[in-house]
Amino acid sequence: MRVVDAPPKVDPVTGETDEENLGLVLDRDLQDIANGLWRSGAEAIAINGQRLTSTSTIRAAGGVILVDFKPVTSPYEVAAIGPGDLAATFEKSPTAKRFKRYVDSYRMQFSVKKRTGLVLAAAPEAPLRYARPPSPSPSRSASGGPR
């Protein structure tokens, strides 16, 4: 899948670009696409080569979108591995239908293409964390004082 920011509007008289571009891809757009792909049966997803896991984050910092704290820029290439009908199932989803409306309304680019033999890089290994019992607090004197 490919999602691209809309080009900025240019005033035909002055030639200046409009600062407000409603067709920019946002972090929540990529979140919606990833969630729509998971719902459609995806088994593995990557955004611009950044493999997603169950603990991945997609968020914005300033004007940049970060996938697991690594910046990604337009055009956004979202690759997904799943059942043979993944592309068709996703294209029928509410998420894909909404993005097709964005193409018409905001000039954003959105396309889905089925590929075979797709290979995604392995997800980074998450560091293991272990629970530890709290350290014992110093006890009060045995003189019967409050504990």
Automatic annotation (TrEMBL):
It comes from the Bacteria. Residues 128-147 are annotated as: Disordered. Gene3D superfamilies: Protein of unknown function DUF881 (3.30.70.1880). InterPro entries: DUF881. Pfam families: DUF881. Residues 138-147 have a biased composition (Low complexity). Belongs to the UPF0749 family. PANTHER family: UPF0749 PROTEIN RV1823 (PTHR37313:SF1), UPF0749 PROTEIN RV1825 (PTHR37313). This is DUF881 domain-containing protein. It comes from Dactylosporangium fulvum. The lineage of its organism: Bacteria, Bacillati, Actinomycetota, Actinomycetes, Micromonosporales.
